[in-house]
Specification:
2 domains
């Protein structure tokens, strides 16, 4: 009788361990990983990476962190694995991208308006720089400096002309980046010219 009871207890223990092994071992969230990767690709196709670069990169980083976390959990014993952190990262990345994709078109309209303003600003600053060149000192050293600035200003004009082709393609993000860079360069050239003019006036 005692032997039977021992066998029953042993059987219950074994059954308990089997249940724990069946339901206590967390599985890697492969379906969530696949969904996040697909969403990331769809977001890139929708140009989320161009018009919401920071948010897209954050989502990409979350996906990368989730994959790293999954590898970390996979290296643990079956009973101690916990994929809750990875699941949270995957859910966050997917939700963010799904929220941003419908906003891309509105963002393009916003960036287009900025591009229109930048085009006017660049043209205005270009004219101002040319005016400074006309009154810049052309002494022994000044002549070479002014010629160098004229060359750089010509490059800015070329860059401005290239923006037209970018705009025709509807790539407002690239146009904005190029115009901002051109505007910054012209501002730098204007500063050099003004310093030369001020130095000559002293």
């Amino acid at each position: 009788m005692l032997e039977v009871k021992m066998k029953v207890k042993l059987g219950l223990v074994v059954l308990g361990l089997v249940v724990v092994m069946m339901f206590g071992c967390a599985k890697a969230p492969q379906q969530a990983v696949d969904a996040a990767k697909a969403t990331l690709e769809a977001a890139k196709t929708a140009e989320v990476d161009r018009y919401f670069a920071d948010e897209y990169n954050a989502a990409y980083d979350s996906l990368s962190a989730a994959l790293t976390e999954i590898e970390t959990q996979n290296s643990k014993s079956a009973l101690s694995r916990n994929y809750s952190k990875a699941n949270a990262l995957l859910a966050s990345a997917t939700a963010t991208l799904n929220e941003l994709m419908p906003q891309v078109e509105a963002k393009k309209v916003e960036v287009k308006a900025k591009v229109d303003t930048l085009l006017v600003n660049v043209q205005t600053e270009m004219a101002a720089a040319k005016k400074l060149i006309s009154i810049a000192p052309r002494g022994k050293e000044g002549k070479a400096a002014v010629q160098a600035i004229q060359g750089e200003l010509a490059a800015c004009e070329t860059s401005l002309a290239e923006v037209s082709a970018v705009v025709e393609k509807g790539d407002w993000a690239a146009a904005q980046d190029q115009l901002n860079a051109t505007l910054a360069k012209i501002a730098s050239l204007k500063n050099e010219l003004q310093q030369a003019i001020d130095k000559k006036a002293k």
